[in-house]
Amino acid sequence: MLSESKAKTRAISIADFLRSAPAELDLELVAGGEGQEKHELRSERIQKLGLALAGYSEYLHYGRLQMIGTSETAFLQRFSPEKRADAVASLPIANIACILITKGLKPMSEVRAFAERNAIPLLRSDAVSSRAIALITSFLQERLAPETTIHGVLVEMHGFGVLIRGESGIGKSECALDLVARGHRLISDDSVRIKNIGGKLVGSSSEITAGFLEIRGLGIINVRELFGVASVRTSKSLSVCIEFRRSDDQIESDRLGLEMESEEICGGRLPKFSLPVRPGRNLASLVETAVKVYMLRCEGSDAAKEVLERHARAIAIDSSKA
Amino acid sequence: MVETSVKVVNNLGLHARAAAQLVRLAGTFESTIKIIRPDKGVFADAKSILNLLTLAASNGTELHVQAEGPDENEALAAVGQLFTKGFGEF
């Protein structure tokens, strides 16, 4: 019923990586530029070429950035130029997408020749290896994160990212308007882009519709202009999902609130409340309450359990009298 | 209006999950359904879960079921059966 485009893992070409990598890296293309469109990074994991240069290249994977730092350089410098050329030439070309030299080290002529000959991009950064690894990992994690776009509304309430779902016409946007009027913040209406960044789901809006809501009878409204700069934000990590259901759906709702449902989105799991929608139900205050209930549960407080415990005590007294 | 007597036969009494089942069943009927506990002089609407929990009916408690409305007979039969079957716990 609820459509969701399939999450896909992505890749980034070396040319694109050079253009968009964090400026702090100050990347420079040294050799092998010919292969920069063809070769791509497919994983945020970074490998160091050390062991492969020593002859063990079993675990060298295509799509990962291969790094040459001080230790690799020092290791190669121990060799004669011929042996050095042999060590470099023995690298499995098919498994190398790109080589990065860190700490602003001068690329050795054998490495440069290898890159040029095989059209493998050879990059250089002034950053030290540890810093480069940290920067590149988080950059690639974001860029390569599985992404999906789903139908729904994303709002931030009390610091929690709340995804509201349900079929069209059920009142998601009207509810979002109500929530914004109560001081909560809109991230996206109608279509939410969700990324799974290292297991954390982060939702954002498309650039075109950010800050706008479509309300039947009013058309498109500019939330930021109407409610002020604090009424919108661009992205937010997701905490909880609220699904609006037609009350005539034959699914029984949980009357006690003992179980917490959840929903899988983009490879992650979100706790979920299902709210039957009926005319006259105040959805905004229900959503607000659901979020507060969730906050309490996160702290270990559970109203249903409390009532059940009291009831169990009452029954115990009752049966001891009988 | 029709009425019948039932006995709580499940071990845990009319506990919360059983009460939830009863509410779900009662909700399918148009009739008003009351669960009466004569020994304490209290009653509860079978369509309200919190109401039912106030009965604190343990195993062995005698209750009366009262139904009133267009489908009172069917309602009474169904609710009576739920109690006899021990809410499906046997």
Task: Describe the model.
- Chain A is an alpha/beta fold and 322 residues long.
- Chain A has 2 domains: 12-144, 3-Layer(aba) Sandwich (Udp-n-acetylmuramoylalanyl-d-glutamate--2,6- Diaminopimelate Ligase, Chain: A, domain 1), CATH 3.40.1390.20; 147-306, Rossmann fold.
- Chain A has 10 helices and 18 strands.
- Chain A has helices at 14-20, 50-53, 70-77, 81-89, 109-118, 129-144, 172-181, 223-227, 283-298, 303-321, and strands spanning 12-13, 28-31, 40-41, 46-48, 65-68, 99-101, 122-124, 147-151, 153-157, 160-165, 185-188, 191-197, 200-204, 212-215, 219-222, 235-246, 261-265, 268-277.
- In chain A, the strands form 4 sheets. In chain A, strands 8, 9, 10, 11, 12, 13, 16, 17 and 18 form a 9-stranded mixed β-sheet that branches. Chain A has a 5-stranded mixed β-sheet with strand order 2-7-6-5-4.
- The N and C termini of chain B lie far apart (30 Å).
- Chain A binds chain B through residues 252, 255-256, 258, 304, 307-308, 311-312, 314-319, 322, and chain B through 12-17, 20, 23-24, 49-50, 53, 56-61.
Map the helices and strands.
The complex is a heterodimer of chains A (322) and B (90).
Chain A: E1 12-13, H1 14-20, E2 28-31, E3 40-41, E4 46-48, H2 50-53, E5 65-68, H3 70-77, H4 81-89, E6 99-101, H5 109-118, E7 122-124, H6 129-144, E8 147-151, E9 153-157, E10 160-165, H7 172-181, E11 185-188, E12 191-197, E13 200-204, E14 212-215, E15 219-222, H8 223-227, E16 235-246, E17 261-265, E18 268-277, H9 283-298, H10 303-321
Parallel strand pairs in A: 4-5, 5-6, 6-7, 10-16, 16-18
Antiparallel strand pairs in A: 1-3, 2-7, 8-12, 9-10, 9-11, 12-13, 13-16, 14-15, 17-18
Chain B: E1 2-7, H1 16-26, E2 32-37, E3 42-45, H2 49-53, E4 62-68, H3 72-84
Antiparallel strand pairs in B: 1-4, 2-3, 2-4
